[in-house]
Amino acid sequence: MQQWARFAIIGAMLVTAYLLILAWQKDYGNQAPTVQEKTAVVAHDVSTDLPNAQNTATSSDVPQASTAQAQQSPAATANPTANQNLISVKTDLYHLWISPKGGDVVRVELLQHDQTKDGNQPFVMLESDPKRTYVAQSGLIGPNGPDGSKAGRPTYATEKTEYTLADAKDVTKDGKTSKVVSVPMVYTTAEGVEIVKTYTFKQGDYPVNVSYQVNNRSAQAWQGQMFGQLKRDDSADPGKSSQGIFTLGTFLGGAWGTPDSHYNKLKFANFNEDKLSTDAKGGWVAMVQHYFVSAWIPGHFGNQEYTAKLESRKTQDGMNIIGFTSPMINVPAGKAMSVDATLYSGPKIQSELKDLAVGLNQTVDYGWLWPIAKLLFVGLQFFHNIVGNWGWSIILLTIVVKLILWPLSSKSYRSMAKMRVIAPEMQRMKEEFGEDRMRFSQEMMALYKREQVNPLSGCLPLLIQMPIFLALYWVLMESVELRHAPWMLWIQDLSAMDPWFILPLIMGATMFIQQMLNPQPADPMQAKVFKIMPIMFTVFMLFFPAGLVLYWIVNNSITISQQWFINKSVEKAKAKTDAA
């Protein structure tokens, strides 16, 4: 029975290591990290790729209108005063560029997130240059939509080409006053229909409202549909970071959700074969990468939330497109109507994503242990609000977890301490009964019963810790809040490996001390395997996030103190019993 307990402990430890390595290799590629370079923003003219509304959309940037026999309006003329320069918008969170051609967002720099830990360049989320294409597009298609006309995408006119927080106005809503920057863009068709496309930025918020106001000053009714989509090539994930011999880069691809099906992933390779095509009210579409996400959330037609068609496709030139299309909008002559949507392009901040759409916060993918991971993250956030440091938050969370598990682990450690005390008696029985294994097993079971010892209890602490350990791994890998988060001294990024390998060596030492407090295997081969385990785990931990290793060190340190105290109390109780 004791041998089976040893093998169970070894197996549990190996399973833990195996699952970590397997998860790492499965979800994180072995490619070199992508270095984002500062390049010129290019506003691609994609008008040559735009089909008529009734043509197939698989090779186009613009989605197909819902009317199969849609009639094109007469060729619209671009406003001669349209500014051909990119429009720059700078807030406290964004530096963003909008192309007057179609009004697409062609570059986004996140000012609160650096490309690298030691760098001073902002992280580039969206960009359009010869090396990489990843843009957020929106427009109006359909019978009279200018984006679906034969003349190509419209060119909007703006009052100026630079907007900052100095242009912000105070807007009060629900008793709260916020600084809001509005970027209106105007396009007038040959028929006299004025289309005002407005980007609205709020200070301190990543979500951006994109609205269309159609002022129909023509003599005929206007019909069209709003679309919003994300277009991306197959380039590598710039959000991944170097981890020594490993390179991190979580799921890179499309995602979508509805109130009935909260979170679904869609690989780029499946954008056509298993393409998305569904109608939903309150849905969303997104492109997901490590730590960051871009998403379109359909909004309102007037004051009513509309049912949008969510779609994905791959163009003939290999671009991956995922987006939505609104229902048909009818604007009578002399009337005005509006339609809008929300664009999010930034870090995966769960609290903000949760408020935007149901399931959007699940783009922070914690894997199959997500219930435990979410609890751990909530605990980390709680302590971070108190101490203001993620490293100390991990230490405090580990202490709380150990206190919660203390009664259960104490029972297990007490049984192990008794195993340690009766080890000499077991050795005596082994020598006495020699090769009579049946008699030895009978006497050993009687001894276990008499001393109230459970040889399998030693597996319990590790089995309990394994899911917590794996869940914390996902928290460190998926939570952007811990990206580049420093602790102290040489640990300046808890989501990356220890650059000096000091924490893994300390972890190995604590694991070795902990083993010395456990009852030693009677079998020489098992004893050798046990001595090798700290070395094996030290090697594994060399390239794992420093925050994960820190958790394991604190956990081992508390376990050593707990186990030492229990061992001493059991030894004293045994001495008293023997004396009596």
Topology (SSEs and partners):
Layout: H1 2-27, E1 87-90, E2 94-98, E3 105-114, E4 122-128, E5 133-141, E6 162-164, E7 169-173, E8 176-188, E9 193-202, E10 208-216, E11 222-232, E12 242-243, E13 246-247, E14 253-257, E15 264-266, E16 277-281, E17 284-288, E18 292-301, E19 304-305, E20 307-314, E21 320-325, E22 329-331, E23 336-347, H2 350-356, H3 370-387, H4 390-404, H5 406-421, H6 423-433, H7 437-451, H8 459-478, H9 502-517, H10 524-541, H11 546-579
Parallel strand pairs: 1-6
Antiparallel strand pairs: 1-2, 2-3, 3-4, 4-5, 5-11, 7-8, 8-9, 9-10, 10-23, 11-21, 11-22, 12-13, 14-15, 14-17, 16-20, 17-18, 18-19, 18-23, 20-21
Helix content: 25-40%
CATH architecture of the largest domain: Distorted Sandwich
Query: So what's the oligomer here?
Result: single chain
Distance from first to last alpha carbon:
30 Å
Biased composition (Polar residues): 50-62
InterPro entries: Membr_insert_YidC, Membr_insert_YidC_N, YidC/ALB3/OXA1/COX18, YidC/Oxa/ALB_C, YidC_ALB_C, YidC_periplasmic_sf
Protein name: Membrane protein insertase YidC
Domain Membrane insertase YidC/Oxa/ALB C-terminal: 390-568
